[in-house]
Amino acid sequence: MDFSWLVGLALLSIGSALTFYDIIPTSYESLIPLALFVLGYPVSRPGWKDGKILVEPTIRVHIYPHAPKPPRALAHTHLRTNIADPKTIICYDPATGRHLASIPAPTPADVAEAYARVKRAQEKWAKTTFEERRRVLRSLLDFIVENQEDISRVAVRDSGKTMIDATLGEIITTCAKLRWTIDNGEQALADDYRAPGLLMMYKNAKVVYQPLGVVAALVSWNYPFHNTFGPLISAIFAGNGILIKCSEYVAWSTSYWSAIMRTCLAVHGHDPELVQFINGFADVGEAIVTSGVNHITFIGSPEVGKKVQLNAADHLVPCLLELGGKDCAIVLKDADLGQVTSVLMRGVFQNCGQNCIGIERIIMENEIYDGFVKDVEARIKELRLGSVLDDEEGVDCGAMTMGTQNDKLETLITDAVSKGARLLVGGKRYSHPRHPSGQYFSPTLLVDVTPEMNIARHEVFAPIMVLMRAKDAEDALRIANTCPYGLCSSVFSGNSRLAEQLCLRLKTGMANVNDFGVNYLCQSLPFGGVGISGYGRFAGAEGLRGLCVPKAVTIDKISFIKTSIPPPVDYPIKKAAKGYGFVKELVRFAYAPQIMEKVKGGLGLAKASL
C-alpha cells in the first residue's frame, strides 16, 4: 500500500508550523482583525433553487418570459432566452442553467472613470512601505483560509466546477502565492547591487525596482477567484494599482471578489479604489488596453491574445501573454504506473479539463501502452457528472463553463477517428437527466492519436484524455515537440536523470519530473510558455519585477571621489589626435587580456595625459 502521500502530509505539516513560527515575532503584532462578511450570497448555498432555469442559456441575451414556452413539465421553472442585449450580461450556473443575475455591462466610459480612480489611489499607495503592503496581504490570506468554503461555493456556482476542484485550483494556489509574496516579495524587489566594472570601481551600481503605476489584467474564466487575485497580489505588492477585467462568463462572482479586496484595503486605512474589478465584453477589454495603463497581463487564447498585443502596440504598452497550452506527459516504460495513472487522471480531468496546464497529450512507450489504456478506460467510465451544490455526493466532474465549445470538441474527435484514432469512452456532449440546461461534456478517452491530427495540435480545454504511442524516449520527445504550444510538460520515468534531461529538451516554458502542474505551487518559480503559448512570466521574482520599472542607478562610493573629465578629452578639445590616443590607451589598459598589454596601456595613458 502506498503511504507516500502520508509522508508528504507530515512534511507539509512540519513546514507549515515552521513557517508560522518564523512569522510570529515580526508580524503578529501588525495583524489587524479583518471585519469582513460574506455578502449574503445565499445563491451559493447548496440546494438553492430560487433562480429560474434558462432554456439554452447564453450570456449575451436578455431574459424574456414571453418567449415560446418550454415543455409543459418544465414550464413553472424554465425561461427561454432569445433577445440579444449588448448592455446586459446574463449570469447563470453552468451546471444547472439556473439564472443568477442580469448585470449591466460596463461601457468604455466606465473604464475611463475606473482608471482615473485607481490612478489617484496608486499615487498614494506607491509611497507605502513593504510592511504596510504585507499587512494587507496577511489579512487577505487570513480571510481566505477562514472563509475558503464560501469562496469555493461562489466559484462553483459561477463556473460549474466541483468543491474539490475549487479548493485545489482557487484556494490553494492563491494561498501559495500570498504566502510566497509575504515571505519573499520584499527580497525580490530590494535594491539589486551590481558589479560596476573596472572603470567605474569608485561607483555603487544598483537596480531599483519602482512601481509601473496602473497596470491591467484581462483574465480567463476557468478559475474566477484565483485568476483575478493572482495578478492583483503581485501588482499591489509591487506598488501598483490595477484594473482587472474579469471574464463575462463568470461576471456574477466579481462583486464578491471586489468586496473582499476593497475591505482588506479599507481596514488598513488605504484607498479601496486601488483595485478595480470590471466585467464586460470585448469593447471593455479594448478600452482597458487603451486607457493609459502601463502594463497588461492577458490570460486567454492565442487568437484573442494577438488582438490584445496589436492594440497595445499602438500605445507601446508592454504585455505578458499566457495563451494556453497543449501540455504533454511523456510516460516511459520504467515509470511507476500506479502513481502515473492517478496523477494523469487528475491532470486530465481536474476542473473538467479546463486548465491552462492540464494534460492534453499522453505520449507513452509501446510496452506499457495497452495496459494503461485498459486501466484508464475502466476509471473514466465511472466518472460522474453533475452539480456538486445540487447533487451533493456522487459528482466527480462539474460542467463546462463555456457552453459554446461542444460543436468544436465533437468535430475534433470525429476528425481524429476518421484518421485512425479509436474512441473508447465518451466523445460527445452529455445531456444530464437532472439538469437538462446544464453544460456538460462526457469524459472521453481517445487513443492512437497521431501528431498530424487536429486534436493533437489544438487546445481542447475539456475532459478529453488523448493517448499517443511512442517507440522510445527519443520518439516521444519528437512527438511532443511537433505541437506549436509550449506551456508546461511532464516526464514520468524510474530514471529521474533521464526524465530531467528530456524535460530540458522539451520546447516548453515549464516542466515537471514524475508530476503534473506542481511547478505552479512552487510560487518561487516563474510561470509562462513559449511558442503560441505566449511570452513573459508571472509568479516568482521574475513576475514581481516584471510589474516594475527596473531603474539603473549609480552613486559615488566615497563622496569626495567623483568623475572628472581628463584634460585630453575635455571640451573644447585642444588636440584631437592626443585625445584619441588617450581613449585608445584607456581601452587597452582596461580591457586587454594580457598583463603586459595592460602595462603598456597604462604607460600610454600617462604619456597622453602630459
UniProtKB/TrEMBL annotation:
A Pfam family hit: Aldedh
PROSITE patterns (UniProt xref): ALDEHYDE_DEHYDR_CYS
PANTHER family the record matches: ALDEHYDE DEHYDROGENASE-RELATED
Protein keywords: Oxidoreductase
Record-linked Gene3D superfamilies: Aldehyde Dehydrogenase, Chain A, domain 1 (3.40.605.10), Aldehyde Dehydrogenase, Chain A, domain 2 (3.40.309.10)
InterPro entries the UniProt entry points to: Ald_DH/histidinol_DH, Ald_DH_C, Ald_DH_CS_CYS, Ald_DH_N, Aldehyde_DH_dom
GO MF entries: oxidoreductase activity, acting on the aldehyde or oxo group of donors, NAD or NADP as acceptor
Keyword Oxidoreductase: yes
SUPFAM superfamilies with a match to the protein in the record: ALDH-like (SSF53720)
Residues forming coiled coils: none
Segments forming domain Aldehyde dehydrogenase: 87-553
Organism of provenance: Jimgerdemannia flammicorona
Recorded family membership: Belongs to the aldehyde dehydrogenase family.
UniProt-recorded name of the protein: Aldehyde/histidinol dehydrogenase
